[in-house]
Amino acid sequence: MNSLKIPDFLIFSTISSVFHSKENLMNTTAKFHLTAAAFGVLIASSVYAETNQVYSNTVQAHNAPMTVDVIMKDGKIANILTDNRESPGVGKLAIANLSKKIIRNQTINVDNVTGASVTSMALKYAVKKNLEAAGADLSKFQTKLPKAQLKDTYSSEVVIVGGGGAGLAAAASVIEAGGTAIIVEKLGYLGGSTVVSGGGYNAVDPERQNRQNIDDSIDRHFQDTMRGGHNKNNPELVKKLVEEAPPTMHWLEGKGLGFGPKVRVIVGGLYPRGHGAEGGGYGYIRVLEKFIKAYPDKVKVFTDTQAVKLIKNEAGKVIGVLGKHDSKDVNFMASKGVIIATGGFGSNVEMRQAKNTGVWKEVTLDKNIPCTNNFKASQGDGLKLAEQVGANVINLDDIQLHPGGTPKTGIMSSWPSGRNRIFLTPQGDRFVNEDAARDTLCKAVFKEGGKYWIVSNHVKYPTLDYQSKNLTIGEMIKLGQAFSGNTIEELAQKTGMDPKKLRASIDTYNDVVTGKIKEDNLGFKKFTQDDKPMTEGPFYATPMVPAVHHTMGGIQINSAAQVLDKAGHVIPGLFAAGEATGGVHGSNRVGGNGVADAMVFGRISGQSALK
């Protein structure tokens, strides 16, 4: 039974109860919902419940404060409205699903959505406080909902462990090949870490690149990926990645995913071949989930189900997965093959510390170093499953950090991706070429003490309503995730930077992008026509820290996504894709290759499993 107690850090403020008559409800509810904004604090009042009333409460959710309005009619919850900045496909999905359950069953005793527990608790707490303000008898809203009972065994041709980007791409390809699949997902929703990613996708695409006079080729993408991975990559896998990235991108477009017309350099991407998906990482999940849902007879999805063991037959072929759902053992049998698509282990602090003997061995990757990924998803579960049946697991010391972590949380909600921003020390000096590889960027940050500023201006954020990731720049300022100044001196005063150093840093950057100098002493060059000078305020500064972002090592596969044992032999019936695998990225992943990897090898794994 879920307790409705909530940690103090979730409580932001309590908004007053606001009551409306039935005839004015349609006009006033929307108005109140807009004015009871996430950052407002109104004085609480106590009024007895009446028919057709609106009650509101604001709490701290996962990403930002969230206002929850509850409409009561005749003593029942008629509707729940929220003003939130939670992540699409994660927090927003949890809010929508829980709200429907609460309204349909008239109970707040509903289970948290696994993987979105902070958002779930925040919503339930706010609804509870609204019911209290309405004078409701809380005992009438505590009915425990029965849980769905699963059978002992389910069967299909393919079983996919993990419902993130790679797993959904695998399921879609199984459908297209005429097969059937089961997805086993431990979270309460699909999407994994892909859904919270920026969604940049590297691919050679002459149609878009030629418009910007960008000369590119498959071979150049190959060379950049090998160079970025310090030539520790498996060339066979890299070749497959770069060759299949363009047709897989068009495959996704055919399923309804839009990509922007502009090609960019994704941070750490080394070359302008990055394509921005509409909706970011959520865009991939949205279109693939929609495609899969159109074939309910082909794919069955089991969420809140942990895969605990792979099942082999006497001949050594992997033929299924033992799962656990609500403490019940469930067998998921596969007549053709099992695909592991469970992501990496970036959020598993104990595991990443134990394996951290590579590029970051001089840094203690403990809980003080946050992670950008979905915490529940990136625990390394698939690696442990594969090792149970003799799979070779390689290069686990290859752990990547991203410079775009929000201090303390690691969430990239305030990361100013793209162009027209500079990296500065706490004092205001530029210290690294902003276009360098991610490991180079993060090592430079650690050399400067582990914290830094990203400074931009109105070129990057034209208005306070301009949204970066999940938040607008105005909201970031109110949350203390960014600072603004109409002048360089004002920004320096607010951030503690030396105004002379800050001005000199901006001037040097401007000299490069205006063509006054071709390259500065850090190696920074004007990369695209989008690079603009920063000459006028307002100026913005965002505090940033390095955060664990990707684990390059994992299950060894071949170019058909078949899993290999320690002798290099194929393990019959077992396949893997995405961040759970090793060898594609070497010791450093090139920015923009991660989602491409998940989509390309996810698609290949589904095709291979059915052969």
Automatic annotation (TrEMBL):
| EC class of the enzyme, as a word | oxidoreductase
Q: What keywords are assigned to this protein?
A: FAD, Flavoprotein, Oxidoreductase
Give the domain of life: Bacteria
What InterPro entries does the entry give?
Answer: FAD-dep_OxRdtase_2_FAD-bd (IPR003953), FAD-oxidoreductase_2 (IPR050315), FAD/NAD-bd_sf (IPR036188), Flavocytochrome_c (IPR010960), FMN-bd (IPR007329), Succ_DH/fumarate_Rdtase_cat_sf (IPR027477)
Q: Domain named FMN-binding: which ranges? A: 61-134
One GO cellular-component annotation of the UniProt record comes to:
membrane
Q: What's the protein called, per UniProt? A: Urocanate reductase
| Species the sequence originates in | Parasutterella excrementihominis YIT 11859
Q: What is the lineage of its organism?
A: Bacteria, Pseudomonadati, Pseudomonadota, Betaproteobacteria, Burkholderiales
